[in-house]
Amino acid sequence: MPWELKPDRPIYAQLVEHIEQMILSGVYPPGSRLPSVRDLAKEASVNPNTMQRALAMLEEDGLIITHRTSGRSITEDLEMIRKTRARIARDQVSEFLEKMQKLGFEKEEILSIITEMLKEVRG
Amino acid sequence: MNPILECSGLTKTFGPKKALSDINLRIGQGQIVGLLGPNGSGKTTLIKLANALLTPTAGEIRIAGMKPGLGTKKIVSYLPEKNYLNDWMRVRDIIGMFKDFYEDLSPEKAYDMLKRLNISADDKLKTLSKGTKEKVQLILVMSREARLYLLDEPIGGVDPAARNYILETIISNYNPEATVLISTHLIYDVEKVLDHVIFINEGRLVLSSPVDEIREQGKSVDGLFREVFRC
Amino acid sequence: MLAKLMKYELKATCRIFPPVYAALLVLAAVTRLLYSFNPRGTNNVPLFISALLYLFILIGMFVMTFVVMIQRFYKNLLADEGYLMFTLPVETWKHITSKLLVSVIWNIGSAAAAILSIIILSIDKILSGELKIKIAIDTSGSFNALLLFEFILLCIAGMVFGILIIYASIAWGHLSNRHRIMASIGAFLVLATFSQVMFFCFKVTPLARELQEHGEVYIGPGTPIAMYHWITWFSIAFFILLSALFFAITNYVLNRELNLE
């Protein structure tokens, strides 16, 4: 996935989100080894300090583990990943709902639009 | 930790013109810093002072605690806006010359970068195009294991592909004991690589801030710059 | 570091002089040969051309030596290349010294080439003994090694003086923001005048003393050899002192007042 970074939000926050997505979508499967900070920074075209900060946050959240001698890897704690997945989903939906409500949509309307569009979406 | 670059009350005047007034600054190690400002704001003057190409009119500038001189020249790697290559050498000759004078120059790195950029080491400097000469200068600067890299408009006259390569090189060269100071007015391209930015205008320090702080306010550095320097 | 600087300075200039030296010597030889085929001949056009070319190259060589000296100093230190040179971890005085020494080398080279070419031109007269080379002959009529040594020292001191006064003028003139060439010429006039005044003071003193002691000053075949030594060593000292001054001026300007475009 290309690293798309918006200019008006802190980069480290966007990096955290991007890596979370990669974990959830299976690009970085549980237990797999992460590239070095420098390589990741190069890939994302960002400052290694910023990438470092993002990785530190992910470690705090428990998604990444740092091994003293062998770099970083994704957690094998599937429960943790599941919880993260749920959190992201709720964040996305709540953002969406807020927007829709600001536009004046009622709950039933929102639900029917979603149901209709889901029929059109594959999978 | 000691700052790698420190200015106190730094002032430089050229006759009646005040190029820099009372600059106070501290930049730490392991940072990539943007020195941003419109043309003529004093960016180049500040960098020249750091290189001992100019002497302060008042105040001080110190690099790793030393006044600019022999000791600082050994640990500073400078990329000027100008083209400083002579016209009688070949590319390999100038790498050899840099190796002769700078202990920290890594010829392997230099040749590697030349290969990646498709520049032949046997080319005569005078036959190279302007863009290629700029790339050669960049290679010479980035092949050094310096403590402070001063890049004056490194991406200005270069095509977008080369621009990316330059930013990539800066990132991959990153080392926690070195600091890179990039002076530019092309902020948009460079901002995601910066830890910290310094805004300078008419010789005065306008702002010095970590990039994250700016973005946490919902602005890009480019956006803030336009706000601050609105004509 | 100084040796390294000189290495690169020599590399930068070594393609220029040797070919000219070679051409000079070849033309001297050619002229000599053409003359010997037709010593008293009139309408000897090839000889005329050859001699003219030789003269042309001879003069050109000296002009070139002078011009290259100025150009190397200006181009390598005060133009864009200065950004490279002055960020090298090398003291400023080493930059000045390396250029000075290399200029001296090429000056000596040109002088040697000229002398050699003249020897070639008059080779037969020398070999037959018709033309004796008299140098360093003292009042007793014999060769005096000390005089020769002094003479060479004087020439070198004079060379160094001449080079450094030009470097100082270029550096000083460079401080002006506009019309740098005029400013450098102006600086040169100031420094040259200053040198003249100093020389006058220097020269006047021993001569004045001579006058006091002997009631007269006389420099000619009968003059005691000591007088020659006096004047020579005084001149050498004069050149050395002023050279040191010009070196200091150049060093100061490049160190403290440098402002590359």
Protein topology:
The complex is a heterotrimer of chains A (123), B (231) and C (261).
Chain A: H1 11-24, H2 37-44, H3 48-60, E1 64-67, E2 71-74, H4 78-102, H5 107-120
Antiparallel strand pairs in A: 1-2
Chain B: E1 5-14, E2 17-27, E3 32-36, H1 43-50, E4 58-63, H2 70-75, E5 76-79, H3 91-101, H4 107-116, H5 130-142, E6 148-152, H6 160-172, E7 179-184, H7 187-190, E8 196-201, E9 204-210, H8 211-216, H9 221-228
Helix pairs in contact in B: 4-5
Chain C: H1 2-13, H2 17-37, H3 45-78, H4 82-85, H5 92-121, H6 123-127, H7 145-174, H8 180-214, H9 225-256
Describe the 3D structure.
The complex is a heterotrimer of chains A (123), B (231) and C (261). In chain A, 60% of the residues lie in helices and 7% in strands. By secondary structure, chain A is mainly alpha-helical. Chain A has a two-stranded antiparallel sheet with strand order 1-2. In chain A, a hairpin with a 3-residue loop joins strand 1 and strand 2. Chain A is elongated, with a radius of gyration of 17 Å. The mean pLDDT of chain A is 87. Chain B has a single domain, classed as P-loop containing nucleotide triphosphate hydrolases (Rossmann fold, 3-Layer(aba) Sandwich), CATH 3.40.50.300. Chain C has two domains: 114 residues, no CATH class; 128 residues, no CATH class. Chain C contains nine helices and no strands. Chain C is globular. Chain C starts with a helix and ends in a 5-residue tail after the last helix. At the B-C interface, helix 2 and helix 3 of B face helix 1 and helix 4 of C.
The helix content of chain A, as a percent range, equals: 55-70%
Report strand % of chain B: 25-35%
- Per DSSP, the total helix count of chain A is 5
Number of domains of chain A: 2
Identify the strand order in the major beta sheet of chain B: 5-6-7-3-8-9
Instruction: Please give the most extensive interface between any two protein chains, plus how many residues each contributes.
Output: B-C, 24 and 25 residues
Oligomer: heterotrimer
Spans of chain B of at least 5 consecutive residues whose pLDDT stays below 50 are: none
The fourth-level CATH homologous superfamily of chain B is P-loop containing nucleotide triphosphate hydrolases
What CATH architecture label of the largest domain in chain A applies?
Orthogonal Bundle
